[in-house]
Amino acid sequence: MLRYFGSFWSLVCGVFLLTLPLHAQDEVTFELKLSKEKLGINERLKVEFSMNKDGDNFTPPPFEGFKVVMGPSQSISSSWINGKRSFSKTYSYILVPTARGKFTIKQATIEIEGQVYKTLPKSVVVTAAVDKPNDEKSVDDIADESLHLVAEVSKGSPYLNEAVTVIYKLYVSPNISVTNYRPLDNPKYNNFWSQDIPVTKHTAQNGTFKGKPYRYVVLKRVVLYPQKAGQLEIEPLSLEIFVDVPTNRRDFFGGRIYTQTSKTVSAGKRTINVKSLPEAGKPANFGGAVGEFTFSVSTSKNQLNASESLQAMVEVSGKGNLKLFQLPELELPSSLEVYEPEYNENVRTNINGMDGKVTDNYTIVPSFRGKYPIPSITFSYFNPKTSRYVTLDSDEINIEVLEGPESTESTSSISSVNKQLVVPTGKQFHFIKLKPNLTNIGSQTFFGSNRFYLLLFAPLLLIPIAVFSFKKREALASDIEGNKIKRANKLAKKYLFTARKELGNKDAFYVALEKGLHNYLKAKLKIETAEFSKEKITSILEEKQVNGADITGFIALLQNCEMARYSPFSDVEMQQDYAKASEVISNLDKQL
């Protein structure tokens, strides 16, 4: 009996010994490791979260009191030693302290094999800045000192609608070399009209930064036209730069070994003070033009025949915000048939702003013979160099129609002057038939019939209608705001039609689409060009209780129009944007 009991106990002990290493091997570990528990405010802290089994849904702690300058970076190691598998996975962060004091790196969590594991929190003490002249600088320290992104602004206090140039330069110390970069956050330029100037070639140039020799590269150039007065912020440009940093190690041949790292640099926010245009001396017909311009009105011909056409061109050329104001309208005699003007622009945007010309091309068709004057019109603009308004007048033009029918007024006046005595010959009535062979058409007579009374009283009914129509036309003519809305509505339709024709031509398509969207808003919301900003548009549409999806779609279209200046867009994307614009405008029409 004892012999059997001893055998049974030996079997149990054997099973326990075999099982013990298996459980020990299956134990999951998830640990927090710190490079140091006490550091100066000018030092860096490396934080690692390590585990011995692969997991999912890793959630780091908030890192209160620290700023993440690098990470998370992930490393995995796996090996087989004597038939046993060794696995390790690590998430690493590089932190810099934001204040002095005692801080706690709180728990991180991860899910491994369906269970959630947490690290133990650890405390870190941040002291005053430490002097470490003899310490060896890390790769990150060298990258910090050797890279600087700077935004150079041409004017700190421009006028409203005056061009401002922003140039982004990356200064690089000769000690390191940049291998690549990628944008992390592009500025939105709210309250500005913006035009990106492409940088075709990144050429390194020699320069200085804070008195030290550096090389710099121009990464981005943009021209801004402020659309609002006051303190305006230019959002920062943020980049991730990949650099090769030399170490103190040497290879077999004595060459220095380089280590690659990445660093996030930002140009920082810039604030400019935008001055309002002065009210003193502002002309009544001022339309928002700012710059230096010339103004002219010309015609393709001065003499023609009736039913022929001529072209009258209103042209403004020079330097300034050429795309951001409307041209003055021609005042033509009512006897001339005039078609809606065709707007053309030949504008180049360079580092100094817009340069070129814009024109309104009118097609005019006279119907009668005579002389028709095109009176002089005025154009006003503000010159920021002299801080004064300038008013230009066009020349008066006379159009002579040589051949064609005369108007009713001219015919009656000529016949009253050239009256002649008619001498009867006795045969002037020989064409009248004395026996016309008339037949009876019925018992009803014209006098006293319904038709008779209708024609009798019709003028009395038409007189109040004519008076009402005249007053209506007069009211419409005096409704300046309403006429602006109608004109903006026509321009919106025109530019959307132009955008459809320019599908496949990225630049022309998005320029026309953006103008169509802007003019649609001017027609529907009664806001001026100076008030255009995404925040303003969103606020007004929300006040009108427009569906949130439609507001988001409209803002997305405006952002695509801005991004198209410096990003490639395919034909499919253009077709999708045009279809989206039609859908959004249709939805807004129903709600507004």
Automatic annotation (TrEMBL):
Keyword Transmembrane attributed: yes
Family annotation (InterPro entries): BatD
Signal peptide: 1-24
Residue intervals passing through the bilayer: 452-470
Keyword ATP-binding in annotation: no
Residues forming coiled coils: none
Keywords recorded for this protein, A-Z: Membrane, Signal, Transmembrane, Transmembrane helix
PANTHER family: BATD, PROTEIN BATD-RELATED
Annotated protein name in UniProt: Protein BatD
Organismal lineage: Bacteria, Pseudomonadati, Bacteroidota, Flavobacteriia, Flavobacteriales
